[in-house]
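Predict both folds.
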Amino acid sequence: MTRSRNTLFICALLIFSINFAQSNTAIAQSSPAEKLVNTLPDNVVGFVATSGGDSLKPAFEKTIIGRVWNDEGVRTFRESIKKELISKAGQEMPELKEANVFEIAEGIIHQVLARPFVIGAARKDTTQGPPIYGFAILDAGPRKAEMASSLAKLESYADEGDIVEIEVGSVKMHGPRDPGDVPGYWGWVGNYFVFAINDGDGLAIKYLQSNVSRPSPVYLKNVPGTGDALVAHVNLDKMFNILSLIAGMEGGEGEEVFAAVEAVIKELGLNNVNSFTERVGFDGPDIVSNCLLEMQEPRTGLITNLKPINLSMFDMADPCAISATAVNCDIAGMYDTIMKAARTVIGDDFAEVEQGIAAVEAELNFKIRQGLLESLSGPMLSYVLPGGATMQSPQGGFVIIAGLKDAKLWTESMSALGKFATEQSDGMVQVSSQVQDGRTVHTWAVMPLAMAQVMPSWTILGDRVVIGSNPATLTSAVNQIDSGTKSIRSTDGFRKVTAKLPGNLVSFKYGDSKLQFIQLTTALQQFWPMATMFASNAGLKLPFVLPQLSHIAEDMGPSCQYSWLDAKGMRSHYRGAGIEPSLGAVAGGAVGAGILMPALARARQQARHVVSMSNLKLLGTSVIMYADDHQGKLPDNFEQAKEYYKDSIILESPLKPKGFDGPCYIYVNGQSMKDKSPGRQIIIYENPKYCKDTINAAFLDGHVERMPRNRFRETLEATYKQLGREMPEI
């Protein structure tokens, strides 16, 4: 659930910080997103919805993320990046720049993100085609006029006649002239803009046309919301029902595959899971998220391996830690559940899997299930120390404390694994052991990591194994456990977030947002100049200096994230600044975009080459088929072989630049199918006048090559020499 939440945080930042219209609207008790969800069609499989910037702006501006986004330095920084990215995109895609597509798209995005909208999918009853359709619904409200104008402008870029008016139920919509096998439509129903695919009956607009008030769905009532910056819901029952229907349509192999998937789901205990719902919103300076993984009782499979935790585990965590997490999971039980599911699917062939595991264990000289996993008891605490926490580890470090059922078994397993790693690493891994204060400390030094002071070390302390990122953090962790003095549990921040907690906690994570943010920004300040250098090498000029945000960090409070089980299923809650994953995503995204932009351009060019080579393959096959039907005589030109390739569009290469008047493909006539070396004779080639380093060519035996220019010239010259003709100038 943590990954899901972090993804939604990042989405929330990217969505609601792009643009907010001037609005002082307060968040209503029933959020705009919730009201929009009430208009959704029947049999919804899943959706993602938002209340929109107009509604969320006042609450967003009070959050830490909102303050960061609206900071003057951040504004300048992001505008600089945006300008550079758009400029780079314009260089790579000049046709879009000339049509002002970037500006139009940005304007439409701003308009859309200001209003409540939802994107989802729903099930439909049909005997033909997929039993599912997709939809997007936007409540334009007072922005309808400007959105309709932008849409009309966007539609004007389509070729005349490509967009037609179609009837969807009693409503007139727009759609493509040739929708192919999957019909689609878009248009207005009152103030709602609707886009749908595979919905020929207009199911998506059913409740938009009626004024009947519908109650909020039960799944929303089961999960508290705070303004609904984002709402996500997936009905797993309906999703699997659709997969079952699709498998039934395919028959045979499709049904077998689905039966296997169904068996795995049952063994993992996921057949009891009905749905997943998450609501993310803003409350004061914090982001708040609530989730529910709804599942029936009795619960089986993976979920049964999650056990209750006790907050006393945090007594072992250093008070200086910037984050600490406790879980209680039967890892051996998890392993057994997964292997049982694998046995169900693989059947008799599972014996080969067991033999493979046994072979690995023999090579490692220890047992995985009956050794390493069996030695662990379940409760586990981990925490992260900031840079400077110890003089011996200036960059900080991590600590893991895990309960043991069998300390001897753990030691034997890890010793065998260390010996194997040492023997196989050619000196890159060194394992050492020494006695300190009556305990044996084992240290694993991996050359590249050791240079960064990361040398995982562990020792046994009673019925626990303590693991540190290096010997210094390990010693600090052992002293913390032995001392019984102040821990993270006694800090004001920890006490604040744990004042009101539900029972049956199966995980808990505490974070000092202020320290995390300071450490993250410090690391980014060190990393950013190098990142801008990489981006510069990729042709992207980013600002060298990151904005200073220490004044905002001072106001950050603690964060907490925890999960628990109740009668409805597994719930999860988060409250905190939400700044850590968001800031990392934005910074990484900016660098990534700069580095990937040229790669994407190369990928586009590569795709054009693939299409061009496909065209050459079809043309080459066509002239050979012509020869087969004409006593081995090849055609004099492409036109004579037209009945074999039919569509003249293959005569146009996607590599041809705009404004080029010459032919795309050049045909070498006068050849014979009786040639003794057809694999070396070029029959058709791409026009070299617009090709740079490589040229595509089709050969008399039917194969196609992308050739370096020099080799192409030599091969074409040999072809013309055999014909007794002079090669044309290229």
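Second protein follows, with its predicted structure tokens after the sequence.
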Amino acid sequence: MFYKQLDSGKYRYFEKYFDEKRNKWRQVTVTLKSKSRVAQSEAKNRLARKIEQSKKVPTANEIQEQIVQNKTVQEIYEEWVVIRKQDVKPASFVAEQISLKGFIEKFSKYKVSEVTTADIQSYLMELDIANSTRKNRRIYIRILFKYAENIGYIDSNPADKVVLPKVRLEIETLERANEKFLSKEEMSSVLIFCKSYKKNIRYTLAMEFIFLTGCRFGEFASIRYQDVDFKNKLLRIDHTLEYRVAKYDDRVIQTPKTVGSIRTISLSNRCLEIIDYFQKNCLDDKFVFVNAVGGIFRQPVFYKFICDNCQKVLGNERKYGIHLLRHSHVSLLVELGVPIKAIMERVGHRDESITLRIYSHISGTIKNEISQKLNEINL
């Protein structure tokens, strides 16, 4: 310690010390009226206290580390969604947020560094959902924590080591799979009913068109006249209507979900007749399939039309919907003996396992053919 007299007559006492956290020499001071032994002793005590207090002041790195450690799941989520929204298609983004909603609500106030593998596993196992849905929830949670890991908020991803039951094809699952399609006879009976009772002709024809092409609803609703090659009987599918996140009449067109969804498919004569009907009764010079007022098909309205009429004809034991028609198209192709690779290309599936998993059922006609062929074998 040393001191010097100021112009005011007071004395300023100095003490240097080495700050190990900052790795440099620092200095503290106090000012007293005297340089007596008592004053010097007082100065020494005050300087010691100042040094002790100074050592407790966190460094910039410690402050940043504390901020990181105190980050909550909600704060991480809010950071992540800004980036995630730009990475995926709007519909996929909405689906992810719906899947994560329950997890975020439960863990929003948790510090992200305190969420454990056991926490995530307990949350997922407590949900009353199918194992396949549980697996998808874990995927989204894992993506969220991967962001936190990459940024440096956590050292490892707690979702990586979550152990879930394997997705098994149980008897009930297989039975449900067999219910997710209409045979051509069932489709025919529904169409006859709709025409006989003069149901909405545009929805009736749309239902038939999807059954004959296997288009997804977004692909179907975005078909333009320029996409149809009438001479060669071809339809180019390279875009989709984003109907889930936009206002209906905004007609937001975007690229398909995957590259494999971009394709050119052949059209039957009946498909061309359906397109011809819409062209002759044209209410929009660009889009083919529009409703009675020239707007794009409302997905909920079309869905209800399919459900109501299928239930009246086929009963309410099954769940009906737009995607059922796409399933039915694949089942029809299987029944016609079309190779799995050709089916994949037609419906826009890039991964063979998807087609095999979703359409693992075999219709009654195919089963009978197998039985007949086996009966012809003599060993």
